[in-house]
């Protein structure tokens, strides 16, 4: 409930990252889900710098190919994405909620 209230409390920015091994690379940039853990093990990560706790952690990134596919289909129309981006790389999705 807290997460839903947070994520729907204002605009979000949705993006789809396409590159080889996208999920692993992006998860390194955003850091662990829990912002407190991120501050300890990945202090330069987005969540370490901007997150507040385990739920309000500033940014979402898919954690698997299946999640990325499901979330991409939810937020973006797959047929229009393929026309604009013909790359065959695995992808991940991110949501950023600016203040």
From TrEMBL:
Keyword ATP-binding belongs to the record: yes
Pfam assignment, any one: NDK
Keyword terms of this UniProt record: ATP-binding, Kinase, Nucleotide-binding, Transferase
Lineage top rank: taxon: Eukaryota
Domain Nucleoside diphosphate kinase-like residue range list: 1-83
Any one biological process term the GO annotation gives: UTP biosynthetic process
PROSITE patterns: NDPK_LIKE
GO MF annotation terms: ATP binding; nucleoside diphosphate kinase activity
Keyword Iron: no
UniProt similarity note: Belongs to the NDK family.
Protein name: Nucleoside diphosphate kinase-like domain-containing protein
């Amino acid at each position: 409930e807290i997460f839903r209230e947070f994520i729907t409390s204002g605009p979000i920015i949705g993006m789809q990252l396409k590159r080889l091994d996208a999920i692993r690379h992006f998860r390194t940039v955003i850091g662990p889900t829990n912002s407190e853990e991120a501050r300890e093990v990945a202090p330069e990560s987005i969540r370490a710098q901007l997150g507040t706790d385990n739920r309000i952690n500033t940014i979402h990134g898919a954690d698997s190919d299946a999640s990325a596919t499901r979330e991409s289909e939810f937020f973006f129309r797959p047929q229009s994405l393929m026309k604009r981006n013909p790359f065959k790389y695995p992808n991940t999705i991110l949501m950023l909620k600016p203040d």
